[in-house]
């Protein structure tokens, strides 16, 4: 029994002297583990006489319970001390200013802002949004849009082609959003009134051109649409988008394979003073191309051009963003410069509306 008293004293001292939870765990294993001092004493019970076991059995079980209780109590003390130390070392200075939230520091890219503005304007006129894939077939990007074989726009210097397939077909990155016009006319019954914003791709790069850029096209197909409707829609769009009360517009004859007649539209502007002011002055600025949808395009979509007619227009989203918000270089749109987006970007919760102001 004196050996057990000595063992108990040693273990209680070791428990009291344990300065951390890991050190306390070492004491527990040394006492109660498979090869611990108490466990080794328990193994000797089998070799004792019945009278000896009656004495040593309760004594060993009592020692085991006492050590377990002491370890648990010491563990609570150490845990409280560790928490106190952590609280003391991880204090927060509540007098420091708060970090700005993401809604304060984040910015909407001007291209996304302009797409939202376009959507608000044309939705107010009754247009819906149509979308299509960036990778297109030659048939949808060119043939169905009345591009004849050998047209320069089919050549490699304008178009990004993929490798030729086994059957000879070559996919491409769409050079305009016009393939969505074909997809829409082939899947929807007239009357059709849609706008088509999206990315387009051409082999071109300079201050006002990038290999990837954004376009928006509009399409109206019904039985009675004419150029007067087209002119009114574009005038109302320009007044709403540039936020001017009145604007002069000039239509010049042009050529596009998918429209006939085709026109380019200039709007009134003032170039004096280092910036372009829309809706005033005596200068003109080309802004978009448009025209009546070519009968061949209508026919290629399974519609009868003797019954249905319509018009379409297209403009560069990046270009009109530059005009409205005074950005001098298109390439900076895609440089991912935080300073640029902080200067030209828009707060994420300032949504454009026709009532509150598009660029508020």
Question: Can you describe this structure?
Answer:
- The protein has 360 residues and is α+β, with helices and mostly antiparallel strands.
- It folds into two domains: 2-89; 106-344, BirA Bifunctional Protein, domain 2, CATH 3.30.930.
- Helix content is 40%, strand content 19%.
- It contains twelve helices and ten strands.
- It has helices at residues 2-17, 21-32, 37-43, 50-89, 102-105, 110-124, 138-141, 179-187, 227-242, 295-300, 317-325, 338-344, and strands at residues 128-129, 135-136, 172-173, 192-201, 212-222, 249-256, 259-270, 277-278, 283-293, 309-316.
- The strands form two sheets. Strands 1, 4, 5, 6, 7, 8, 9 and 10 form an eight-stranded mixed sheet that branches. The protein has a two-stranded antiparallel sheet with strand order 2-3.
- Strand 6 and strand 7 form a beta hairpin.
- Helix 1 runs parallel beside helix 4 and helix 2 packs antiparallel against helix 4.
- The protein starts with a helix and ends in a 16-residue tail after the last helix.
Q: Tell me about the largest β-sheet.
A: 8 strands, mixed
CATH architecture tag of the largest domain: 2-Layer Sandwich
Spans of at least 5 consecutive residues with low confidence: none
Rg from alpha-carbon coordinates: 39 Å
Q: In the residues, how many domains can be counted? A: 2
């Amino acid at each position: 029994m004196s050996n057990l008293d000595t063992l108990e004293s040693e273990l209680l001292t070791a428990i009291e002297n344990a300065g951390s939870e890991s050190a306390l765990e070492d004491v527990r294993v040394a006492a109660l583990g498979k090869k611990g001092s108490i466990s080794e004493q328990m193994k000797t019970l089998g070799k004792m006489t019945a009278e000896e076991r009656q004495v040593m059995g309760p004594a060993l079980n009592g020692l085991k319970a006492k050590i377990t209780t002491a370890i648990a109590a010491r563990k609570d003390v150490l845990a409280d001390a560790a928490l106190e130390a952590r609280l003391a070392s991880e204090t927060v200075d509540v007098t420091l200013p708060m970090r700005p939230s993401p809604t304060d520091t984040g910015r909407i890219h001007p291209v996304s802002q302009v797409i939202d503005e376009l959507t608000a304007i044309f939705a107010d006129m009754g247009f819906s949004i149509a979308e299509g894939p960036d990778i297109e077939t030659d048939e949808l990007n060119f043939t169905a849009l009345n591009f004849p074989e050998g047209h320069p726009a089919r050549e490699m210097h304008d178009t990004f082609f993929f490798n030729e397939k086994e059957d000879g077909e070559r996919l491409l990155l769409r050079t305009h959003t016009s393939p969505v016009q074909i997809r829409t006319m082939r899947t929807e019954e007239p009357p059709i009134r849609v706008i088509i914003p999206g990315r387009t791709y051409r082999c071109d790069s300079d201050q006002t051109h990038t290999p990837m850029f954004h376009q928006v096209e509009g399409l109206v197909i019904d039985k009675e649409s004419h150029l007067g409707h087209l002119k009114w829609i574009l005038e109302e769009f320009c007044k709403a988008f540039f936020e001017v009360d009145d604007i002069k517009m000039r239509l010049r004859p042009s050529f596009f394979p998918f429209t006939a007649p085709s026109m380019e539209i200039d709007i009134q502007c003032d170039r004096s003073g280092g910036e372009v002011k829309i809706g005033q002055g005596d200068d003109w600025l080309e802004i978009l191309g448009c025209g009546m949808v070519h009968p061949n395009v209508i026919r290629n979509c399974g519609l009868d051009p003797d019954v249905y007619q319509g018009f379409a227009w297209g403009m560069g989203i990046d270009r009109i963003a530059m005009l409205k918000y005074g950005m001098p270089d298109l390439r900076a749109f895609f440089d991912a410069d935080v300073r640029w987006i902080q200067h030209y970007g828009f707060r994420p919760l300032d949504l454009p509306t026709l009532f509150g102001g598009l660029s508020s």
